[in-house]
Amino acid sequence: MAPCFDIAHLAHVEMYTDKFEESLDFFTRVYGLKLSGRDDTSAYLRAWDDYEFCSLKLTRADATGVGHVAYRASSPEALERRVKAILASGYKVIGWIDGDLSHGRAFRFEDPFGHVFEIYWDTVKYQAKGADVPALKNTASAFTGAAPRRLDHLNLLSSDVSEFRRFMQTCLGSRVTEMIQLDNGRIGGCWFTVNNKTYDLACTEEHGGGVGRLHHVTYATDQREDILRAADIFLQNGVHIETGPHKHAIQGTFFLYVWEPAGNRVELANSGARLILQPDWEPVIWTETDRKKGQAWGLKTIETFHTHGTPPVKKEH
């Protein structure tokens, strides 16, 4: 699929938590995000080099999981082009909303599995003040410790990855950079990009019996050593380390997965210098045999990575 570039980048993710104060403490004190502002239900968080007011909207709720996924259009005209494409697509349309503390009006729509997406142009750019003013003018704000640099990607779960791929290509103009082809003919996972990053969203097959669930949200670090230091920070603070540090075979990212206090999975990752600059890129296809070999250096994928998502699925007794 030819590059579209109507969409500039993944902008923010809204995450639901039923342990709001504990989750907020984790993301600010332990994980290293910065609090930009709050309203009655949400905290607006960002990494030290995110240029927007918010890249993670943490919202108080009765459950966990993802509230919505937001992309910023590349121009007002590009936003209108995407809206026309979505209206003609046959996918569920929610329509225009007024926005919030972090951005102006946005157009919302829904994939076949219940995940809500929005696209907007008008945004609030973060303005650093006081001790948050960076020493270097080409970064958005100061940082301390092993804090992540920027929002990188998220992973959603669906029962039909092929149909999700059609949704992403139709509504967002996304390209597939890598994918898993299962022996039974189904696609086990797809990694999508709207720009020259290797990916900004992944969708993998749901194995836990849920609908419209979140697998994880990921922030990027400058270097691998930041992730090694973060592992010790998580250990010191009693955070559940699920798997890693290690290196993925798919996309080649150095990773560390943990569960925040409400149970949402979050990742720190470093992708090195990988970019997709080739305009006629063909998706890299991984087979089921490839995946059974484990991660890049042989670490086997643990069972919870296939089954744990949020919100959790109630088990029948």
Strand tally is 17
Strand content: 25-35%
Read across the widest sheet, the strand sequence of neighbours is 14-15-16-13-9-12-11-10-17
Mean pLDDT: 94
Rg over CA atoms, rounded to whole Å, is: 19 Å
What portion of residues is helical?
10-25%
Tally of contiguous helical segments: 6
Structural class: alpha/beta
Name the shape in a single word: globular
- Low-pLDDT runs of 5+ residues are none
User: Main β-sheet: number of strands, strand sense, barrel status?
Assistant: 9 strands, mixed
Distance linking N and C termini: 46 Å
Order of helices and strands: EHEEEEHEEEEHEEEEHEEEEHH
Features:
single chain; 317 residues; alpha/beta; nine-stranded mixed beta sheet; eight-stranded mixed beta sheet; 6 helices; 35% strand; globular
Structure commentary:
With 317 residues, the chain is α/β, with parallel strands linked by helices. The protein is 18% helix and 35% strand. It has 6 helices and 17 strands. A 9-stranded mixed sheet has the order 14-15-16-13-9-12-11-10-17. An 8-stranded mixed sheet has the order 2-3-4-1-5-8-7-6. The termini are far apart. The mean pLDDT is 94.
Brief overview, please?
The chain has helices at residues 20-30, 76-87, 161-172, 224-236, 288-292, 303-307, and strands at 7-17, 34-38, 42-46, 56-60, 65-73, 92-97, 106-110, 116-120, 150-158, 175-181, 187-193, 201-205, 214-220, 240-247, 254-259, 265-270, 284-287. It is α/β, with parallel strands linked by helices. The strands form 2 sheets. Strands 14-15-16-13-9-12-11-10-17 form a 9-stranded mixed sheet. An 8-stranded mixed sheet has the order 2-3-4-1-5-8-7-6.
